[in-house]
């Protein structure tokens, strides 16, 4: 980022440190102009955000994956061509898990780069993607990150997937020692394409979100990756987990027209790649909830 | 008598009918089961398995096979290949294929990317049972086209005979062998199988469940056959593997 950037912070400012934290970084560290558009507050509506971004020449946005999709939809509804009217250089995605395939869709619809920022309310920043767009660089002067086996609590080797555990190094008011994030991931020590030689962190979804069907375990993170790779599938979805299958409610992609039987084709493609017994339901629109997107719901 | 149970034939200039005939003669193979090929350039196979390159799945050369089995019906048998994503059309297409003289179904999950548990695949399996022709598919690491899903089909459709291509997934798919032992209607085809894998299968599910195949043109029939010869089993076991089992499944003499 640079001082001439106009940065929209479309993250919550209330009951969360996210909005304010990013605003401070943009203003104090880079001297950039900030549009504190928020996300879902009393005055914060997606159409107003789009208008501000257009009028004030916004080129960077910090927001969540589901909200950037909502902004795109609102712009479309209001007849605004986002790639024409808003010239974004970068979308920083945070707050919700997001697969690489989903990110690719977001990049395509906004016509710019999109990177992940991994952090938590409790610990602050935990990982930042570089231009390689593959794995997080850890802000090691702020946090000490370890991967443990969630059952035995033993520390795992590089490359082994386990729970991410964080010790904060600078927090004075609320220090945390080996805080269990419930997020899953692994670390790798290989020089990054960008030249950084320090260990990188890779996320693999959340421990509590795992889907269990007929004794098999499926990672929603992986299911999303495979779902988003299917060309017929649009940018919004959620899953209802039943006892013997998962119902996946989707929108179709802009290029896809509905035809009878498309559900079976998408279902078969999804099961092919991740094995999950599923039933596809196509809807015109999944309304934005206004809250943090909950993509996995247990209904039994 | 030796029948090669798995040969690919397509439209390209790699692995032509002339080459196949020469290779069969060299190996002493009398007959062969042809399946459509060329949707994947086998000379770059790993790129397809890793998903880096995408197969040309729309152009299935069933017509090439049809021409050969009609010109030399005593030497060549054909398996008809369909894309299950075509749904009802795929089922109708297979039925037409069988009526035109094809003796089995060949599915290609790596080319078409479908689940073996999908509705259309079930309909295809059912149709194969009605016409008493075998259902052949390879299995992949992809969980929707796994050995386990193929076995679930065999259980669901006891009147259909199923052939798992290439001895299942990986160098020694013990699950495939155990399923073949468990289900009367489930067979294993040996091409690309390792010596140790085929040997273990012989002990696990017996020679009555193994079908010799070469996977021409990715492999030379003579080398695939040599792996079988090296099993050093009884003559009756060789007969089962090299022609009797496939003759039984195809209803031919
Ligand atoms: Zn990097």
TrEMBL record, chain A:
<dbReference type="GO" id="GO:0016874">
    <property type="term" value="F:ligase activity"/>
</dbReference>
<dbReference type="InterPro" id="IPR028154">
    <property type="entry name" value="AMP-dep_Lig_C"/>
</dbReference>
<dbReference type="Pfam" id="PF14535">
    <property type="entry name" value="AMP-binding_C_2"/>
</dbReference>
<keyword id="KW-0436">Ligase</keyword>
<dbReference type="Pfam" id="PF00501">
    <property type="entry name" value="AMP-binding"/>
</dbReference>
<dbReference type="InterPro" id="IPR000873">
    <property type="entry name" value="AMP-dep_synth/lig_dom"/>
</dbReference>
<dbReference type="InterPro" id="IPR045851">
    <property type="entry name" value="AMP-bd_C_sf"/>
</dbReference>
<protein>
    <submittedName>
        <fullName>Phenylacetate--CoA ligase family protein</fullName>
    </submittedName>
</protein>
<feature type="domain" description="AMP-dependent synthetase/ligase">
    <location>
        <begin position="4"/>
        <end position="167"/>
    </location>
</feature>
<feature type="domain" description="AMP-dependent ligase C-terminal">
    <location>
        <begin position="220"/>
        <end position="296"/>
    </location>
</feature>
<dbReference type="InterPro" id="IPR042099">
    <property type="entry name" value="ANL_N_sf"/>
</dbReference>
From TrEMBL, chain B:
<dbReference type="InterPro" id="IPR032466">
    <property type="entry name" value="Metal_Hydrolase"/>
</dbReference>
<protein>
    <submittedName>
        <fullName>Amidohydrolase family protein</fullName>
    </submittedName>
</protein>
<feature type="domain" description="Amidohydrolase-related">
    <location>
        <begin position="3"/>
        <end position="247"/>
    </location>
</feature>
<dbReference type="InterPro" id="IPR006680">
    <property type="entry name" value="Amidohydro-rel"/>
</dbReference>
<dbReference type="InterPro" id="IPR032465">
    <property type="entry name" value="ACMSD"/>
</dbReference>
<dbReference type="GO" id="GO:0016787">
    <property type="term" value="F:hydrolase activity"/>
</dbReference>
<dbReference type="GO" id="GO:0016831">
    <property type="term" value="F:carboxy-lyase activity"/>
</dbReference>
<dbReference type="Pfam" id="PF04909">
    <property type="entry name" value="Amidohydro_2"/>
</dbReference>
<keyword id="KW-0456">Lyase</keyword>
């Amino acid at each position: 980022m640079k001082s001439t950037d106009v940065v929209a912070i479309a993250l919550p400012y209330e009951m969360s440190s996210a909005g304010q934290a990013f605003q401070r970084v943009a203003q104090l560290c880079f001297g950039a102009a900030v549009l504190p558009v928020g996300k879902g507050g009393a005055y914060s509506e997606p159409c107003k955000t789009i208008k501000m971004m257009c009028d004030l020449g916004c080129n960077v946005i910090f927001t969540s994956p589901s909200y950037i999709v909502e902004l795109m939809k609102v712009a479309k509804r209001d007849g605004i061509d986002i790639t024409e009217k808003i010239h974004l250089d970068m979308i920083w995605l945070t707050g919700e898990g997001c697969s690489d395939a989903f990110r690719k869709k977001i990049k395509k619809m906004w016509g710019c780069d999109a990177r992940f920022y991994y952090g938590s309310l409790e610990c602050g920043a935990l990982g930042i993607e570089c231009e390689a767009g593959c794995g997080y660089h850890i802000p090691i002067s702020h946090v000490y990150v370890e991967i443990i086996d969630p059952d035995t609590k033993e520390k795992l080797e590089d490359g082994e997937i386990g729970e991410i555990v964080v010790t904060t190094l600078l927090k004075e008011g609320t220090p945390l020692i080996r805080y269990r994030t419930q997020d899953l991931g692994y670390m790798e020590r290989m020089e990054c394409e960008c030249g950084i030689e320090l260990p990188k962190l890779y996320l693999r979804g959340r421990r509590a979100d795992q889907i269990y069907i007929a004794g098999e375990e499926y990672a929603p993170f992986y299911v999303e990756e495979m779902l988003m790779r299917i060309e017929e599938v649009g940018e919004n979805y959620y899953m209802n987990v039943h006892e013997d299958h998962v119902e996946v409610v989707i929108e179709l992609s802009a290029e896809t027209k509905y035809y009878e039987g498309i559900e079976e084709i998408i279902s078969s493609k999804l099961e092919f790649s991740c094995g999950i017994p599923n039933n596809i339901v196509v809807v015109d629109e999944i309304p934005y909830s206004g809250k943090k997107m909950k993509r996995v719901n247990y209904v039994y | 008598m030796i029948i090669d149970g798995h040969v690919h034939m397509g439209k390209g200039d790699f692995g032509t009918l002339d080459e196949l005939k020469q290779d069969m003669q060299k190996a002493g193979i009398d007959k062969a089961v042809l399946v459509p090929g060329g949707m994947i350039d086998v000379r770059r196979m790993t790129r397809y398995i890793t998903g880096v390159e995408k197969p040309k799945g729309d152009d299935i050369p069933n017509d090439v096979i049809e021409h050969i089995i009609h010109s030399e019906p005593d030497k060549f048998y054909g398996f008809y290949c369909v894309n299950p994503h075509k749904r009802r059309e795929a089922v109708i297409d297979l039925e037409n294929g069988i009526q035109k003289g094809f003796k089995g179904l060949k599915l290609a999950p790596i080319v078409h990317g479908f689940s073996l548990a999908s509705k259309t695949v079930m309909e295809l399996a059912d149709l194969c049972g009605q016409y008493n022709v075998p259902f052949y598919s390879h299995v992949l690491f992809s969980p929707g086209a796994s050995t386990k899903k193929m076995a679930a089909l065999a259980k669901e459709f006891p009147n259909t005979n199923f052939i798992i291509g290439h001895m299942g997934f990986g160098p020694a798919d013990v699950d495939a062998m155990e399923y073949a032992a468990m289900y009367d209607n489930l067979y294993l085809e040996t091409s690309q199988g390792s010596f140790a894998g085929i040997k273990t299968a012989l002990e696990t599910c017996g020679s009555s469940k193994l079908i010799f195949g070469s996977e021409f043109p990715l492999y030379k029939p003579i080398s695939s056959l040599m792996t079988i010869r090296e099993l050093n089993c009884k003559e009756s076991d060789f007969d089962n593997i090299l022609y009797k089992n496939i003759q039984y499944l195809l209803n031919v003499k």
